[in-house]
Design goal:
- The chain is α+β, with helices and mostly antiparallel strands and about 325 residues long.
- About 35% of the residues lie in helices and about 20% in strands.
- It has 13 helices and 11 strands.
- Strand 10 and strand 11 form a beta hairpin.
- The protein is globular.
Amino acid sequence: MSKLGFFFKRLVRMDFKRMWETTALLRERSGKSRLWLLADMLRCAVKYNAGYMDYKIAQMYNLNDAQRRTVITRGVSNSIVRRMNDKAYWHFFDDKTQFNELFKQWIPRDWLLITGETDPAELEELLAKHDALIGKPLEGSSGQGIQKYDCAPWRGKAAEFRAKLVGDGIGILEELVVQHPVMASLCPTSVNTCRIATLLGDKQQGIVYAFLRIGNGKVMDNVDCGGMAARIDLASGELKTVGADKAGNTYTHHPITGTPIVGFRIPFWEEAKAMCLEAAQKVPQMRFVAWDVAITEQGPTFIEGNSFPSHAVPQFAAHYPDGIGILPEFEKFIDL
């Protein structure tokens, strides 16, 4: 799709009220007039396929044209995914049961498909083995619809529990992942996962970026649920940047635990990278995948893989203090 075509497609679906609210916030942050911001947003939309949220998160109002060309906007991200990932194979990642089955060698935890036909005896067996379980919709992203269930109240009531799960829109029930104590020291309320993106490019294959997603008091670590992210140095597994959230707040230390973010080192980092690189070869028709990896005391494990990686986290302005975004990293793998 051309830039102009993408622009008009997004224009039809635009939430103008939210865009107007965004300009009010950016007016306070930038000191620029609302009219200037609206005109500049329009310019960035046409020239760089940037939505108003791209404009806000990457702080494009502070960037010159050369810097703006290095930002992975929504339009650029969509173009990369369309080129690299054959939609006929998305189901291996979009359906969580298919993902768990295909990548089971790296998912050593109990899970059960939940439908109205799920055997109550199997569900009862799962309830008997665990104190709590995580329920997820079969499809979805950004942590939407995920719930934690205490098992004790439902033991002996598997049929009733099955009905509740179906009513809650749960499609898969899983054993909780217990993260490594070092990872829990950042935020113990959520499993803080590494987002590791592999790219099977025409120029080279490997990991194009990695970020640690850190919770901020909720069960989920997603930035759409109030969490934050910090960029991981690919060679060392060390966090080289501050934590940043979608609202534009930055943190050198976690606001709840006080654990330093800059300089934090990911345990089992080499193993996590190797796992993602090996898994990336299983479905070669999916050339650009963002893997969510939890680190346990036994090593890394997959939470899920993303067939359409979010472009939000890799463009937080706080992670690029010189204004040069992440697209130069992609250009090492593919032509843009």
